[in-house]
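User: Predict the complex with flavin mononucleotide.
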Amino acid sequence: MNLFRLDASIRTEGSVSRALADTAEKAWLAEHPGGVVTRRDLGFQPLPGDAWTALAHEVVNPAAPAPAEAHELLDRLGAELLAADAFLFAVPMYNWNVPEQVKTWIDLILKHDQVGIHGDQPLKGKPALLTLSRGGGYGPGSPKEGWDYATPYLRRILADVFGLDLQIAEAELTHAFWNPEMAHLRGLAEESMKTGHEDAAEHGLRIAKLSRV
Ligand SMILES: Cc1cc2nc3c(=O)[nH]c(=O)nc-3n(C[C@H](O)[C@H](O)[C@H](O)COP(=O)(O)O)c2cc1C
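Assistant: Here is the predicted structure with flavin mononucleotide placed in the model:
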């Protein structure tokens, strides 16, 4: 059994998206003690920013082929996904959207022959969990309702384009733990964190059970 795990937070100490994913990974490994976790850490090992541009140029100008390294990278990223039985994506919100490294990873993968836009959804129906963290709050009635562009975009790509059977575990208001101006929101932040970990454990177990199918 192979769990593909992608992380994107630029920190390890105190990272909420990573902590939620750790909870889910623990639940998955408890069901699959000999399971392999294949890690892609975009927060600490950024992808080369020019690979997608070179591959995109190649399409509009075949006279300027992309370097072999760009093709090799794309093959490697695709192979990581094709080898997995289950998926765990841990993504923080940066600037009301996904981290640029996640956008880079998605843009590259969308060019992959099998997994990408022109492929035939080889990941369709496989179990996946997305853990999300946000410093602020974006729920109904909050001042920034509608500003969360990360969640709908990730759902579109992971569930609709890749066809993954996607669940979400999330925690928001994480800034309330240290920002004095958000001290009045600390209770809500604690509640969100607790629910996030409960959901991560539940869905971690769920993707572990579905990995067997
Ligand atoms: C560069 C940067 C940009 C951020 N932008 C936002 C934002 O637009 N909205 C928000 O609610 N939180 C924002 N945050 C806060 C993070 O979403 C929050 O700290 C979250 O917990 C980060 O995930 P992590 O705990 O896994 O590192 C930002 C943090 C950083 C470092």
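The longest helix spans residues 186-211.
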